[in-house]
Design a protein that fits this description.
Layout: H1 4-17, H2 30-37, H3 41-53, E1 57-60, E2 64-67, E3 75-76, H4 83-90, E4 94-104, H5 108-114, E5 122-131, E6 134-144, H6 153-158, H7 160-167, E7 172-183, H8 186-191, E8 199-209, E9 214-222, E10 229-230
Parallel strand pairs: 3-10
Antiparallel strand pairs: 1-2, 4-5, 5-6, 6-9, 7-8, 8-9
Organism: Tepidibacter thalassicus DSM 15285
Protein name: Trehalose operon repressor
GO molecular function, one term: DNA-binding transcription factor activity
């Protein structure tokens, strides 16, 4: 059962992300929120604190809580969002092209990234992401078959995350990320519309289930001019 403060947090967060509560709007007072949700002040404060920690609101002493502009978070470094979810959020035409889908035995590199043995079986998925009419992201996903026994082209064209959570009933919890800028490879040049760019922004993701199982390693390779990689940081004194 979801805690009351998390349910309130999720509801307000959803309203902010959907534009039902616009940026710079002042949220109702703690007393008003207590009456609206029929909960204690402590529950409301926990929900507001979580909204503040995740960059949705700013609490100003003596004035209240104000909604921040979340549109500046084009590609959250600290977020764990599928391409489908990102596309829906930014509201542009997008398309996924599956270039490779196969089962492989891991080499030493993948054995190290996924913490598997040479006898394990891994799904390899290579997908090109189109936004507008430009191919600007190359995703190379490697998933442990132990956790994801079946993948199809339809699943990969839609959303692997959605399939894992909705169909397999697994809970994707968190990811460790590494971001670097690298020289574009021949594969990048073949698959992407790089135009005059010779470098690529590479985001490596090590993705875990809620039981701490590492089930996916991804290299997401982005044309450098099309994304801002941003985060929201709050100083805790």
């Amino acid at each position: 059962m979801v805690s009351k403060y998390l349910a309130i947090y999720n509801e307000i967060m959803s309203k902010i992300e959907n534009g039902r509560i616009e940026c710079n709007t002042k949220l109702p007072s703690e007393n008003d929120l207590m009456r609206e949700y029929n909960v204690s002040r402590d529950t409301i404060r926990k929900a507001l604190n979580l909204l503040e920690q995740n960059g949705y609101i700013q609490k100003i002493k003596g004035k209240g809580s104000f909604v921040l502009d979340i549109n500046k978070f084009d590609f959250l470094v600290s977020g764990l969002t599928s391409f489908k979810e990102l596309s829906e959020k930014i509201g542009v035409k997008s398309n996924t092209i599956v270039k490779e889908l196969e089962l492989i035995r891991p080499d030493k590199f993948l054995m190290n990234q996924l913490k598997v043995s040479k006898d394990d079986v891994i799904w390899k998925v290579v997908r090109v992401r189109e936004i507008g009419d430009k191919k600007i992201i190359l995703d190379k996903d490697f998933l442990n078959k132990k956790f994801v026994p079946l993948l199809t082209r339809d699943i990969c064209e839609n959303s692997i995350f959605e399939y894992i959570e909705n169909d397999l009933g697994l809970k994707i919890s968190f990811a460790k990320k590494e971001i670097t800028v690298q020289q574009a490879t021949e594969e990048d040049k073949n698959y992407l519309d790089l135009e005059n760019y010779n470098v690529i922004v590479v985001v490596k993701n090590y993705i875990y289930l809620d039981d701490m199982s590492l089930f996916q390693y991804t290299e997401s390779r982005h044309r450098p001019d099309r994304f801002k990689f941003v985060d929201f940081a709050r100083r805790n004194c």
